[in-house]
Write a structure and sequence with these properties.
Elements lengths: L1 H14 L8 H21 L2 H8 L9 E4 L4 E4 L21
Antiparallel strand pairs: 1-2
């Protein structure tokens, strides 16, 4: 279980100063957004996704958060749909 939440702990630690003065609910909401954004990155770095892009397959990863309290989907504007959308170091076939 520790490996599953390690990224969440790292994200919290990295952004801890950004949470000062926020309510518990606001911190929870922000952590949810940060986790979704990180998962978009993680998925776009996988060989499976990058192979699909290289083969011209239409694949887009969207970073959205659904708020149970409001029923509204919030687009975090972190979508990825091609290898050029990620840093070269994370591409399965790096292009500099």
């Amino acid at each position: 279980m520790d490996n599953w939440i390690r990224g969440i702990r790292d994200n919290f630690h990295y952004h801890q100063k950004d949470f000062e003065g926020l309510s518990e609910q606001e911190v929870s909401d922000k952590m949810t957004e940060l986790n979704v954004m990180k998962q978009v990155e993680n998925l776009s770095h996988t060989r499976i996704v990058q192979n699909a892009w290289e083969k011209g397959r239409p694949l887009t990863i969207h970073g959205w958060v659904y708020r149970l309290g409001t029923g509204i989907i919030h687009d975090l504007k972190v979508s990825r749909n091609q290898s050029d959308d990620i840093e070269p170091i994370f591409r399965s076939v790096p292009r500099l």
